[in-house]
Amino acid sequence: MHRFLLGIDGASDRLARLIGEPAQCSAHRVGQFRLSTQRVDLIHLVANAVATARISAKDREITLGVPDRPVPIEGDRCS
Question: Which of 15, 17, 32, 42 would bridge with 27, disulfide CB 3.0–4.6 Å?
Answer without folding.
Answer: 32
